[in-house]
Structure formats: C-alpha cells, structure tokens
Description:
single chain, mainly beta, Hypothetical Protein Tm1070, Chain: A, 22 strands
Amino acid sequence: MKSLKLTVLFCLLAISTLTVNGIAAGNAFLVFPFYTSGVGMHDTKMTIYNADTVLTNPSTAIHVMMIDGSASSDSSCSQLDFYLCLAPQASIDIDASEYDPMVACGYMLAAAVDATTGVPLTMSCLTGSATVNMPAGTLAPSAGVVAGGYNAEGFNPSSVTTGTGTATLVLPGVGTVLSTTVQSSTLGQTIITVGLNGDVNAATQTGAAQSSVGTITNSKAKLVSYSNFLTGKCQAKGTFTNVTPRVAFRLTTFLGGMTGNIKIPIGGGVGLSITPGGAITSLTHITNASTMLTVPRYDGPICPIALP
C-alpha cells in the first residue's frame, strides 16, 4: 500500500505544471459522456492516459464500465466492465466497436482502484479523451456527420464507502445547471448528458434528464424558457429542431441568425454539445453539487492483467 500512496503524492506534485490535451493531470474517476459503435463509420476511440511522472511507480489499476445509455426512456442502462493496468506515462485506446459493439448511444466510466481490494481511489493521475466518428442522421434525422473529439471529465471522489461487492463514491463538482452556446443554424445540434447519481449495479443511475424549466438567451439579451427538452434515464438527449425545445417565436426566429446561450437544469451529471458540423464540446458547469454513485467492486489482485 505504501507504493500506491507514493504514486498519488507524486502525481499531486505534478498537477500544477503537467497538462494533457490542455487539461491539468490528476483524476481518479473519468467520465466519457458519449460513445457509439457499429459498422462502417460508426465508432468511438476512448483513450485513458496515466499521467504519473514517476516512472518507477507501480501501474495504476483501472476499473472500466461501459454503459448502454441509448439516451432514451427505454434504455437498459446496463453495464459491462473490465480492468486495465497502466504504467506511468502509458495510455490505452478503447475502441467501442470492439469492446461493446452495436450500441447507438453509450457512455463510459473509468475509476482508478486499489490493485488489491478493488476499492476506488480518491486521488490518481488519470486523464482521458475520445474521438467520435458517425454518419449523418445518427443522433437525429437533422444531425450532420460527426468526426470530432472531446476530453473526458475528471473527478476526485471526496469519499468512498464499501459494501459487499460495491463501492459508493461521493463526487464533488458535478453539474446541476449546464450551459452551452446555441448555434445560429440550430437544427441538428444535439445535447447529451449522463447522470452521476444512483447505482450502476442495479442500472438505476439518475441525474441526466432535465429537472426543471430551462432558459435560452439570444444576442440581444432577451430570454425565453422551455421544458421537457432533455429526456432519458441514465443518459439523456435533446436535439434542436423547428419545434424543440418549444419556445416563443420558434427558436430560429428567436435567435435571428445569431448565436445564443442555453442553460439546462439536471439532477446531477455532465454532458456534451454536438453540432451539425461535427464539433463536440463539453457543457459548462454553471452550478455544481456533490452526487453519490455506487459501482461494482471486485477483490484483487488486479495487476498485472492481460487483455484478450
């Protein structure tokens, strides 16, 4: 256990200067809010990187959970999971079409864990990014081709409690009001969120769906409200059309050819905006809260481990 604690300490010393893809390194829990897998152009490559700068430190054990979100009310929200072991400065690419084929809309969680007990850590050195490729019309009939990337959102749990075969993480800084730019050509822009409350074991994750009335502001600082735009269970989705979200004057008229800003209240989670041109951006957190998420836990030893 001493060596594992040293890994964490050296990573913390590096946080102030080390960046990966523009993001400061050092998280124990990563969220990849969206992946798609299938045939042809449908695929997502998710990369996990161990940013530990001390090469003599032991490998970090990582519990990966891929969840069938489908961003709909009939989603199973069931998960498959596996373990990885990454040496300092090492990375691994996870192709969704290999690990979880034929999933229209899923998301991935990755937790650094104790290699002996399987208990999630509260600090580690993980960062992540994803590259998404999918043809036009995949997310919605008006959605364009998507060929872009995004960075995973990272958290350091404030506490972890264990049960029989489970671990419950308290995640600070989870978004409860999210925001993004609404494009002037709004048709086809899609918002996807994932919830970080509930129990992954029981497929009862919550927090992704819109929780109350949201607002959209145009370039003239005029404001309209909307409801029931972002729907789903563990993963939620809303696509801008001529009639959704339902706002006064219709959205395209309200924006008047300019960009606007949308604020989306949710139960607790993170998300992405995907534009018709394929640009993918993380949603901005306007307000945050701590959430509790229960995940499966398996006793080690975990590292070393060989993938098939």
